[in-house]
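To: structure subgroup
Subject: Chain for Friday's discussion

All,

I'm putting the inputs and outputs inline so they're searchable in the archive.
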Amino acid sequence: MALKHLIETFAAWKQAGNRLVLGTVYETAGSTYSKSGSRVLIDGEGNYQGLVSGGCLEGDLAEHAASVLESGEARSVCYDMRGEHDILFGTGVGCDGMLKVLLQPLSPGGDDPWAPLARMAELAMRSEASRCAVVVEGDEAPVGATFMDEEVPAEHPNGLHTLKNPARKVLVYPLAPIPRLLVLGAGVDAVPLVEFAERLGWRVTVCDHRRSYLERGDLGAAESVLELRPERVAEELELDPWDACVVMSHHLASDRAYLAALAERPIPWVGVLGPKARRERLLRELGDGAGDLKSKLRGPVGLDIGANDPASIALSIMAELTKVVAGQSGDRVGMT
């Protein structure tokens, strides 16, 4: 599950008064479904959101979560599915891997309610990346103790560390912000793009000046839908914090105005619909106003998968964006 969806589930469950446990994968070996930093949220009824396996281990993990809620203390669980270990464990999963999961009870009381997930959610809504360190094993240091952002020593790189004085294992991993997509143009082909992006855990904003497009009622997956004229986008919308933007008004003058607003902005990825010739025409018409778009504007946008309809084009765009985001942040630990 994308971090965005886990945070949304967290908000709904705590509003409902559910007792909650956060599970975090902190060590793996061999072939496993998830890697360090992957998370699952479990409530007191055994419901869960997120996956640490393909659904094979979550039921058992929910039983361990119940004991964590009863004791109020964090603990770790190890699943070893390598060879005869899997036979002994009885899962029959056949993944031939091992993973360890830290279970932390989330309490609504105290000085830091719902820690550490409430703070993680807050940091994920920012535009810059941060880091998290959590004690996953130890004698003197309390298991589950979590430190975030500026509290994490700069000398500790991301990964699992065995430390001394006191002896403990600490997982350090990045907390990447939830990626944000700006869609400029609300035609019917924007609908599958917005839906795919939201499904993949992106925060999406759609802008268009044509009110009838915005009032169709089919852009509900977007976080925000704004009525803005292209030439006023730079004045009325903060353009810096976006991870990607797709220009798709299907109107040459509007696309040109959008691109003029995006020039020299720190958005790392900008795409425009249409063939290469259309992109080149837009850049020529912008002239010196194109700025850094000359080197970073994508068009045709999306991976070449033979897309020829709105849904497949949207799929190709999100496939490229998924690849780009993963490449920007390495293995992007902590996103799921």
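Points worth raising on Friday:
Residues 12-175 form one domain.
Confidence is low (pLDDT under 50) at residues 330-336.

D.
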